[in-house]
């Protein structure tokens, strides 16, 4: 057979040397396009991405830039960067850093919109004058009108920083807020603060100053503090409404965990005139993940603690205990008020109810209701009619369950959670659901139709150590208080107030 010469031609008439030079040129052009040499195609992708820092996948799809394994395309600099593993490098570029930069850019954008009051209505036609006209014409019932007005005002809330005053001025603003919990009347807020040397300290904030122009609140702390982690907190009505605070403390080393009842009167200037110091008691228990106080008359003076693979119900006066074995850790609890039922959320994703009148606790027959999530349940809230229950889990799902049919009837989208034990806040009078995600965003939904009404960014960069804690009410500070949202993050307290007028 005759060998092909070095100058043999293909079917298009090109020699092999021309083909090789053409291939080299194509490879060089491909390399230039990959590493930032401007071409007409890359200039178009850069122009389309100017002014926003979106995620790598979304920016690549929007500008038609191919995604290369191990590389990240920066639309601002119009070039690819190598993704480094994150070790043995002075300034590594990793996906975590990229995602953090994207989140911070998004947060700053939302803060700018709030600062310039560029808020858009969350619904078509949700404006003050059309609402008022529909109400006057009888096209809206009073319940629907009040709910829509709350939605409108929540969308227009403006952030203001609150000045915290204390008899001991040296401690104000030095410790970070970890948790705030309001009492039933929304007159006081119990606070848990992290201290520098480790552990937590407690305090009570009086909210009566929120109605003044100065926006000041008074904080009273006490010498009571602990070097142990506080897993759960709730108000307790032992001698009178909200007379005590129930805390679950985690055990460390050889010190076991405990559930403590602290009288609110221990904190300075919070005790009414003539009121005597209340009972202070502590119950040694193993690690408790959650707690709840019972307001049902059939289980008077009782509280519950969710432990590892069991539920412990204790009478705070007599010390009598009831134990219910479970198959998983109990992370969330709440008592019903009309019926003697205790609802529990487990790490396994199960939600079940305990009938306190049940005598036989063998097997699983004592479980009055059983619901299931795909991830660990972090919060359960019983609605006022006690026919529906709201539950949130560690996959970010928030579901409304019909307890009569054991069926999920609504789901609220947008919540962010991966592994944190985050609470839900339900306000049926206003028709609102509020939750703070692990991404540090506070989200407000319409309780009626699951519509996401507003997303509030944290004043500080997102951090899993600085997740805000919130309290919302239409009467913060008591019956004659002001409506709005109270947000605590780091050492600061912020108040998102309603506008005085809708016009």
Q: What structural class do helix, strand and pairing data support?
A: alpha+beta
Radius of gyration: 29 Å
Which regions are unreliable across 5 or more consecutive residues at pLDDT < 50?
1-63
Note the beta-strand portion.
35-45%
- Spatial sequence of strands, sheet with the most strands: 4-5-6-7-3-30-29-28
Describe the structure.
With 503 residues, the protein is an alpha+beta fold. The chain has helices spanning 16-34, 40-49, 56-63, 95-115, 128-136, 142-155; strands at 71-74, 79-82, 158-165, 176-182, 188-194, 200-206, 216-226, 230-236, 244-249, 258-263, 281-284, 288-293, 302-307, 310-315, 321-325, 330-335, 341-346, 350-355, 367-372, 377-382, 388-393, 398-402, 407-412, 424-427, 432-436, 442-446, 452-456, 469-476, 482-489, 492-497. The termini are far apart. The model is unreliable at 1-63 (pLDDT under 50).
Task: Please describe the structure with a list of short key phrases separated by commas or semicolons.
about 500 residues, alpha+beta, 8-stranded mixed sheet, 4-stranded antiparallel sheet, 30 strands, about 15% helix, disordered N terminus
């Amino acid at each position: 057979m005759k060998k092909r010469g070095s100058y043999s031609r293909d079917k298009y008439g090109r020699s092999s040397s021309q083909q090789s030079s053409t291939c080299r040129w194509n490879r060089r052009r491909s390399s230039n396009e990959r590493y930032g040499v401007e071409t007409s195609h890359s200039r178009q992708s850069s122009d389309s991405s100017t002014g926003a820092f979106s995620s790598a996948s979304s920016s690549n799809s929007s500008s038609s830039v191919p995604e290369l394994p191990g590389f990240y395309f920066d639309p601002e600099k119009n070039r690819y960067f190598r993704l480094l593993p994150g070790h043995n490098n002075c300034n590594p570029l990793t996906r975590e850093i990229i995602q953090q930069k994207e989140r911070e850019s998004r947060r700053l954008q939302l803060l700018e919109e709030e600062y310039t009051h560029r808020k858009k209505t969350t619904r078509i036609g949700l404006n003050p004058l059309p609402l008022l006209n529909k109400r006057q014409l009888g096209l809206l019932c009073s319940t629907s009108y009040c709910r829509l007005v709350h939605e409108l005002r929540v969308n227009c809330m403006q952030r203001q920083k609150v000045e915290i005053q204390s008899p001991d001025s040296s401690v104000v603003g030095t410790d970070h807020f970890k948790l705030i919990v309001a009492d039933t009347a929304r007159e006081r807020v119990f606070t848990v603060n992290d201290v520098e040397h480790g552990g937590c300290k407690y305090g009570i904030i009086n909210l009566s100053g929120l109605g003044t122009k100065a926006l000041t609140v008074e904080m009273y702390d006490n010498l009571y503090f602990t070097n142990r982690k506080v897993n759960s907190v709730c108000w307790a009505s032992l001698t009178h409404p909200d007379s005590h605070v129930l805390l679950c403390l985690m055990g460390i080393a050889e010190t076991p965990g405990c559930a403590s009842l602290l009288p609110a009167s221990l904190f300075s200037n919070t005790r009414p005139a003539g009121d005597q110091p209340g009972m202070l008691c502590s119950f040694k228990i193993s690690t408790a993940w959650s707690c709840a106080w019972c307001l049902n008359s059939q289980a008077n003076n009782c509280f519950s603690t969710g432990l590892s693979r069991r539920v412990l119900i204790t009478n705070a006066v007599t010390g009598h205990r009831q134990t219910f074995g479970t198959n998983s850790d109990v992370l969330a609890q709440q008592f019903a008020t009309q019926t003697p039922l205790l609802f529990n959320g487990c790490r396994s994703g199960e939600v079940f109810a305990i009938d306190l009148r049940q005598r036989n606790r063998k097997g699983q027959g004592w479980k009055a209701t059983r619901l299931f999530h795909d991830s660990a349940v972090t919060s359960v809230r019983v609605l006022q009619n006690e026919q529906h229950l709201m539950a949130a889990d560690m996959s970010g799902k928030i579901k409304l369950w019909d307890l009569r049919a054991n069926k999920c009837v609504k789901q609220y989208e947008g919540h962010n959670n991966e592994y944190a034990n985050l609470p839900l806040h339900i306000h049926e009078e206003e028709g609102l659901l509020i939750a703070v995600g692990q991404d540090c965003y506070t989200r407000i939904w319409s309780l009626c139709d699951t519509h996401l009404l507003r997303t509030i960014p944290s004043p500080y960069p997102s951090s899993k150590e600085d997740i805000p804690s919130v309290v919302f009410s239409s009467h913060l500070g008591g019956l004659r208080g002001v409506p709005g949202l109270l947000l605590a993050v780091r050492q600061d307290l912020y108040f998102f107030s309603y506008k005085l007028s809708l016009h």
